[in-house]
Specification:
Length: 555
């Protein structure tokens, strides 16, 4: 018996082998290896001899250890390549398995044999024999068990998934020439079971969703040439069931909503039946009609057709109907209208149309209506107006218009302003001048003085500032100068002095610094020089002397 190195097994017995002795002599062996003559699994591998590559086959029927019939279809090949180890005396093998045999012959030598089991299989249904292997059928072909080729399915048939049975294509599908699977009918075609092509539906017919039956188009629809689905009749046309086209209704007839019947027509109010017309037409523009009309009637002056075109209604106040107009238009600019107007009326001088354009109202006092104006405008400058004015009136000399521009008042100018000769209104004081109430002119401030913001009081310039000649405001002292309150100029500091930051006091330069001629701030002594407080220059140290770091004394 043999040992298989594989997971799935077929029973097999070895019938005969070719052996080679250690002295090189080839000895035929026809001893049957069976349950009565097993191979010895206990021989030592170091006594093994190499076997030449040999092939043998069995055509006899033999029994394995459990008595089943085996081996008559197998070809076994012996090879020494990769042989190793010992195997048991019984096992199960599969086609293509590699096995190793080992036995002792008369105690004089050991044979190690490796066998590969092979046989020509019987291919299962849905496959066929190609060389030494089974191949699956492909495309639209099938096979039965043991086939050497696959058979194409007939017209209108499709191979099942297992490639074992040809089944007719379902109704609504077909098998095209050289096709591999059934295809659904498309367009306006159908098929029965087992069809090799799809059949077009007849005139006025439509294929159902399953593509299995042609049904007539419903009344009110039709099937156009080369169409794929029924289409609804349009316009003033109808159709009966199964139509291939729609039929126009006659003169004075109108297709019903379903497009199945032509009905004698009575046009509704707001529409009419034109001469030789085939359907009612809606009134357009500024026209109306009553039921059964053969034409539409224009609305009168100042009237507008309602949306349904059944009644003429007067234009509302504030609007009008222009000649050849189709709808009422709003009055524009400074015009008004009453109900039913065919035009708008301009407002008179000094009048303004209200927002609704229905009434002309006088301009309010303090405003006026200019020529060709569209709305009242406020009086400006030193002018006033009364209600309904078309212009504004200037105030007289010494008079000033009040804020509302309705009254000219005798004017007393407030402090900080004045009434110039021949003036019409008070004017504010400017520059460095002031005034008291009722002044006719403004007074300049004195030297070192500045007018306050209200131009009512002259105030002395603050210390550290001054009022220059013809100045309009106090200016800060600059450089190395100072001033006291009310100054008209700034005073330079003396030699060795420096103005403080506020420019109000001159302070002596600190020891170790000096004020140079025309300087603006104290400068530190440099080199080998020193200074005392308030110096205008630094003094060099004598021979053999050195200024300290602060430049204030000798070391």
């Amino acid at each position: 018996m043999v040992q298989c190195l594989h997971q799935q097994h077929i029973p097999v017995s070895i019938i005969s082998v070719t052996r080679q002795r250690s002295d090189g002599e080839i000895i035929p062996d026809s001893v049957e290896h069976s349950k009565d003559n097993p191979l010895d699994p206990d021989l030592s591998p170091d006594r093994a001899v190499d076997l030449d590559l040999e092939t043998w086959s069995s055509t006899e029927e033999n029994d394995n250890a459990d008595g089943s019939e085996i081996c008559n279809e197998y070809t076994l090949t012996v090879s020494t390549e990769g042989a190793s180890g010992s195997l048991s005396t019984s096992s199960e093998c599969k086609i293509g398995d590699t096995v190793m045999l080992e036995r002792k012959d008369g105690g004089s030598f050991t044979i190690k044999e490796i066998a590969v089991i092979a046989r020509e299989e019987t291919c299962e249904s849905g496959s066929y024999r190609s060389a030494n292997t089974c191949e699956k059928c492909t495309g639209n072909t099938i096979s039965s068990s043991g086939a050497s080729s696959c058979t194409p399915c007939g017209a209108g048939e499709e191979a099942n998934t297992a490639k074992t049975v040809c089944e007719p294509c379902a109704a609504g599908s077909y098998m095209p020439n050289d096709g591999t699977s059934c295809e659904i009918c498309t367009g306006n075609t159908i098929s029965l079971s087992g069809a090799s092509s799809c059949t077009p539906c007849g005139a006025g017919e439509e294929a159902n969703t399953d593509k299995t039956e042609c049904k007539p188009c419903a009344a009110g629809s039709y099937m156009p040439n080369d169409g794929t689905s029924c289409e609804l009749c349009t316009g003033n046309t109808i159709s009966s069931s199964g139509a291939s086209s729609c039929t126009p209704c006659g003169a004075g007839e109108e297709a019903n909503t379903a497009k199945t019947v032509c009905e004698a027509e009575t046009c509704a109010a707001g529409s009419y039946m034109p001469t030789d017309g085939t359907s009612c037409e809606l009134c357009t523009g500024n026209t109306i009609s009553s039921s059964g009309a053969s034409s539409c009637t224009p609305c009168g002056a100042g009237e507008e057709a309602n949306t349904a075109k059944t009644v003429c209604e007067q234009c509302a106040a504030g609007s009008y109907m222009p000649n050849d107009g189709t709808s009422c238009e709003l009055c524009t600019e400074n015009t008004i209208s009453s109900s039913g107007a065919s035009s708008c009326t301009p407002c008179g001088a000094g009048e303004e149309a209200n927002t609704a354009k229905t009434v002309c109202e006088p301009c309010a006092a303090g405003s006026y209506m200019p020529n060709d104006g569209t709305s009242c405008e406020l009086c400006t400058g030193n002018t006033i107006s009364s209600s309904g004015a078309s212009s504004c009136t200037p105030c007289g000399a010494g008079e000033e218009a009040n804020t509302a521009k309705t009254v000219c008042e005798a004017e007393t100018c407030a402090a900080g302003s004045y009434m110039p000769t021949d003036g019409t209104s008070c004017e504010l004081c400017t520059g460095n001048t002031i005034s008291s109430s009722g002044a006719s002119s403004c007074t300049p401030c004195g030297a070192g003085e500045e007018a306050n913001t209200d131009k009512t009081v002259c105030e002395p310039c603050a210390a550290g500032s001054y009022m220059p000649n013809d100045g309009t405001s106090c200016e800060l002292c600059t450089g190395n100068t100072i001033s006291s309150s009310g100054a008209s100029s700034c005073t330079p500091c003396g030699a060795g002095e420096e103005a403080n930051t506020a420019k109000t006091v001159c302070e002596p330069c600190a020891a170790g610094s000096y004020m140079p001629t025309d300087g603006t701030s104290c400068e530190l002594c440099t080199g080998n020089t020193i200074s005392s407080s308030g110096a205008s220059s630094c003094t060099p140290c004598g021979a053999g002397e050195e200024a300290n770091t602060a430049k204030t004394r000798l070391k």
